[in-house]
Every structure is written in C-alpha cells, then in structure tokens.
Amino acid sequence: MKANNKGMTLIEVIVVLLISSILMVIAGGILLDSAGYFNKTAQSNYEKLAVDSISSYVRERLVYATEVQIATTKPDDSDDWHWLSVNENNQLTHDDKEVYSSDFYRSRKLKLTAKCYSNNYRLDLSCAFYNENKQIYKTSSTLELVNIKAKSEKGDVINNSGVHSTQVDISDVAMQKAQDKGYKIYYKTNGALSIKDEVDEDHDVEYDPGKNELDGTGTVADEIKCLSSETEGTGNNKGPFDIEETYSKGDFVYLGTKPNEIWYRALDDNLKGQNPSNNTNGKWKKILKFWNSESTYEEGDVIIYPQEPISKQQYYECIKETKGQGQKETPDTENSNYWKIIDNPDPDKYNSCTIKDSCNEENAYKTVADELCERSSSVTVPDKGNTGNREDGWTNNKGDFIENSEKFSPNHEQRFYRKGDFVILNGETWRLIGEYADISHKPPDAHWKLIQEEWDSRSYYEKGDIVSLNGTYYRCNIDIASPNWKPSSESSAWEKVKKDPNNGWIKV
Asked: Are 103 and 46 in contact (CB under 8 A)?
C-alpha cells in the first residue's frame, strides 16, 4: 500500500510562515509610506489652498482701489484709508484685525511682500508659507490696479508719495536693519471709477467724480466745445491721432477708444510725428479739467489741482505759458511763475472759442511763433535764378524743403529760396532771414529761423525777435544772432523783456 503524502511537514509549515511574515512586513511598510505620502500631499494641498486664498483676498481688496501706497505710516489723517499687513503672529490683518483664525495657518508663518512700479498702477505681490525658516509654498503675481490705470490714462493726477519701487516685506514688525515701523499696504476706494461689465484690455470705465468734487465748468475741459465739427476729418476735428499726419494750430485729435477717448489740441503748426501723450516739444494741450504734467497750458487756462484729496482741490489760472520749465512746476508751488489760485472760473470762458488758430494782426505781444501769420496760404516752388527776381505767381510758402535739383528735371534748373520764404523740414517750420539760399542750404544753414516761441540752439535770429527760454522772454538786440547764442548767457545779443500791460514788450 502507498503512504498518504497530502499533508505538510513541519519544515514546510515553518517556511510558509516565514515567507508570509516577510511579505506582511513589506506590505505594512508600503502602507505606512503611502499613508504618510497621502498625509503630506493633503497638507501640501491645504497649504497651497490657504496661500492662494490669502493672495486672492489681498488682490480683491486692491484691484479696484483709487490709490495705493506702500509706507511705514499712514499717508495722511484721512479716514478713507484702509491697510493690509502681517502681524507679529505672522498672520494677515486688515485694518489691524486678523482676517483668518489661528487654526487656518496650522502653525505656518505667512510672508507677504509687495513692490509698486513708477507708473503707479502695477503692483507685484508675493505670498508664502514658512515652517520655521523653510519655505513651503509661494505664489507671486503682478496686479494691475484697474481704477488707478484708468484715472492715469484720463490724465488725472495720481498721488504716489510714499510708494516704494523695491520689494519690501509687508509686516507690522520692523526689518532687522530698519529703524522705523514695518511696511503696510495702504489703499483707498472712495471716488472710484465704476466698472461696467467685465474689465477688458480697453478698461471699459466711466469716471464718477463724487458729489464733493469741483465740477470743472470753465476749465480747460470746456475747450472741447471749440470743435468746429462733430464729423471726424472735417474742420478742426481731426479724429484719432495719426503719427503720419501733419497738424496745425487749433487742431483737435484724440487718443484711446471712444467713449473713453482723451482729446488734445495742437498749440503750434506743422506737428508731425509728435505724440501728444508725451508732448516732448510742449506743443499739445490735454483737454481735461485736472492739471496734467504732460500738458502745455496757455495764459488764461484754468485747471483743478490736486485731483485728490477732494477737500484740497482748488481752481488755478495759468498766468504764463508753461512750455518748457513750466511743465515741471505743480500749480501749488510757492510763488509760482505760472499759476495763481482763483475762486471760480468764468463758466462761459470757452463759449466764444477764442482759440489762437488764425492770425491776429492786432496782437501786441507777438513772438517768433506769430510770424507764421505772414506765411501765404498757397504753396509755390523755389524761385529760378539768383538775381532776386520773383517768378509769376510767387508766394513765400514753399512747402517742404527741397534739396534735390532733379526735382526740376529735365533741365535741372538751379533754384533758390529768398528772404522771407517759409519751408517745412522734418515737421518744423523755418523762415529764411538771409538774402537767399540755394536748395543745398538745408536749415539752419544760410540763416534760417525756426518758427516757434521757445528759443532753439539750431536757429538764427534777427533784431527784434521775441523768444522764451524756461518761461522768461528775451528780445534779440543785434542784426543776426547765431545758433547756440543762448539768451540767458549772451547779454550783448539779447535782453530780458516782459509784457507791458498797456502795449507790447518792455525791457526788464
């Protein structure tokens, strides 16, 4: 008979138990690691959610603010300020009150940093959680302050005193190397711009001035009444600014998209390629009620300054054209040479539209710029021959300066400019004060004068010419003043003058 071998020996049982024990240990280790991993993942997800929540809270408070400052102290005594900071417990506060409970942070430390850009409507924000000195999670973003940008684009004054352009910690606790208090983010929401629908790239905004604000009647903003036509491209309404177009004194153009466009008026002729938004040559006026540092203002213009706070707003009247140095001077400058405070402007000031867009023969205070009134309306080419004779149909308006004899092919006739002729070169108007110049004598060679009020180092001048330099007027005393003869330093060629209240210019 065969033996029954279906049972397990003792050795086999021991081996099975040993293998099972090893497998259980391995499986247990895997389970424990997995549990730890999931716990860490869950914690990491929570930290990310918490930091993102803090970042969103801060962004939501600031995005529609009308003013934002990063400072160690409250900017002024106004009750309109709110502020964000991080307290000694490393927790977010709003107006010194904790935003979240201690349980929200789970023993993590919050670090908030911020940086304001010089354009005043971009803000870099960074939020991070720390465990001891180790960073656990961080999120950073650049916040565009919608209302502030819209106000800036409208030309309103944005107060940026106390703003820091470097990254700083936002905390109630002073930095180790600092001697003052920690930085806070201060902001205002009053006098806001109302946002219509969704905020898009064009910033679809509309200004709500508030009931206490000066209304602006009788200010520069009223010059828009002087548009001669509602149809773009007709009269002095030139429509949207085009860098390739040439504009004349009195022309209106606008930048931006309607209905939020910003209008400008040309203060000189032959403006080509000169963007009114930066006004580097001082030849554009911004048609807004608030003073704007990029705008040139004329004598008699009325503006409001400052934009904020409303309680300090005043009407100011321009007493001297601000082109040049005057653009840098704020209306409230002590003993200002350009502005004076007035109680109320004349509400009908611009109803007559007395804009200097045509010649005034009775002008007692003519400067070099006013010589443009002597230019003929029709254009003729330079004269032929050098004997001083004028061709039939002659005018002193020669249009664009011609320096190529082949312009007159096939005969390649020699052509000359005569004394008194006007030309345009690179968008600037010049007048010949020498006897004659051939077409190779590009201004200022051969005694050309630049037709503008502000003295220019490239220009010749003749006896009796009135120019301005940094807001001061000078009169030429010699037959011909050469380029680079600066009025303020060439006393033999120039004398300082001022307007005689009765008539003309008198020596100072």
From this structure: no
- pLDDT higher than 90, residue 433: yes
Give residue 213's pLDDT. 60
Is residue 70 within 8 A of residue 114, CB to CB? The reply is: yes
Mean pLDDT taken over the chain: 80
Residues 110 and 128 sit within 8 Å (Cβ to Cβ):
yes
Domains of the chain: residue spans and CATH: 45-195 (no CATH), 220-342 (2.10.10.90), 368-507 (2.10.10.90)
Q: What would you report as the CA-atom Rg of the chain, rounded to the nearest whole angstrom?
A: 36
C-alpha–C-alpha distance, residues 339 and 297, integer Å: 10
pLDDT(469) > 50: yes
Q: How far is CA 466 from CA 28, 74, 296, 310, 413, in A?
A: 98, 49, 19, 40, 37
DSSP code string of 286-350: E--SB--TT----TT-EEEE-SSSGGG-EEEEESS--TGGGGGS-TT-TT-SSEEEES---TTTT
- Cα–Cα distance for residue pair 187/74, rounded to 1 Å: 10
The one-character DSSP state at 482 is: P
Cα dihedral 455/458/462/466 (nearest 10): -10
What digits encode the pLDDT tens for the residues 281-292? 788 999 999 998
Instruction: Determine contact, residues 459/444, Cβ cutoff 8 Å.
Output: yes
Distance CA 489, CA 175 (A): 51
CA dist., res. 302 & res. 287, Å (int): 11
Residue 499 in 3-state DSSP?
strand
Q: Tell me the mean pLDDT in the region 52-73.
A: 84
Between strands 284-286 and 302-305, the pairing is unpaired
* Separation between Cα atoms, residue 463 and residue 455, nearest integer Å: 14
Q: Are strands 422-425 and 415-418 parallel, antiparallel or unpaired?
A: unpaired
| Residue position matching structure tokens 């000031």 | 349
Q: How confident is the model at residue 194 (pLDDT cuts 50, 70, 90)?
A: very low
- Taking residue 264's Cβ as centre, other Cβ atoms within 10 Å add up to 26
Sheet containing 67-71, strands listed edge to edge, beginning at the edge strand earlier in sequence: 67-71, 184-188, 82-86, 92-94, 97-98
pTM for this structure? 0.39
The pLDDT of residue 386: 67
pLDDT in tens, 146-192: 777 777 666 665 665 445 556 788 888 765 444 456 888 888 877 55
Rounded CA-CA distance 238/229 in Å is 9
Q: In whole angstroms, give the CA distance from residue 453 to residue 366.
A: 9
pLDDT of residue 178: 47
